[in-house]
Amino acid sequence: MNAADADAPQDDAYGAARSVGRRQSLAAEEFFYFFLRLRKNEIRRTVRQLEQQFPDEDLRRRARRLVDAKTGLAALGGGLLYVPGLFPAAGQALKLAGVVGAASMLTRMHLYLILEIATVYGEDIDDLARVPELIAVVAATGMGGAAPQLLAGYQAAPWVSVSAGALSMATVTRLIGLAATRFYAKRRAQDDDASPAGETAESA
């Protein structure tokens, strides 16, 4: 079963979503599914659960809950990126495996975050417009993970790099989440203003 088959039964289950009608290609779907383990059904399930738990909250507050939940995980993952540096006796292969594993986890987490926020605001996560947004998230994750390398020239203690990694990645996660919230909130407001109900209210 490929990525498209796995998500197909659920495509219409979440309700009406905003889309410009351009679907992601099969190659893009399978890249995110097989290489980054991106499961869109899980994204939709998380947002449905959030709606059920907090039915009286507005969309911005639900999005903020998603950002808060991911920030702590990002700090943990950012620290894990540099934990191998605390053990000089560890082999280079072991250190590399730890860094690659933590970086992959952080990238997936950020992809889930931006798509969860998009879903909260009624965006279609299968739309082609999501692809450049996800690429930007991957780039931001790499930049945040590389921040502690700036300390290498100062011969800082290894634990400083661990702390810097945790802080930088938590900051990147929060910036990504808040930027996504503002972006999708603005688009939602524009859609509401352009809707027939919004036009009727303005004319009244």
Task: Explain what you see.
By secondary structure, the protein is mostly helical. Helices cover 70% and strands 0% of the residues. It contains eight helices and no strands. It has helices at residues 3-7, 26-35, 40-53, 59-80, 92-120, 130-146, 158-194, 196-203. Helix 3 (40-53) packs across helix 5 (92-120), helix 4 packs antiparallel against helix 5 (92-120) and helix 5 (92-120) crosses helix 6. Mean pLDDT is 73; it is low at 1-15 and 198-204.
State Rg. 19 Å
Which percent bin holds the helix content?
A: 55-70%
Mean pLDDT across residues: 73
Strand content: under 5%
The SSE string, one letter per element, is HHHHHHHH
Q: Supply the number of helical segments.
A: 8
Tell me the layout of helices and strands.
Elements: H1 3-7, H2 26-35, H3 40-53, H4 59-80, H5 92-120, H6 130-146, H7 158-194, H8 196-203
Helix pairs in contact: 3-5, 4-5, 4-7, 5-6, 5-7, 6-7
What would you say about this model in short?
By secondary structure, this protein is mostly helical. It is built from eight helices and no strands.
Index terms:
single chain; 204 residues; mainly alpha; 8 helices; globular; disordered C terminus; transmembrane; DUF697 domain-containing protein; transmembrane helix; membrane
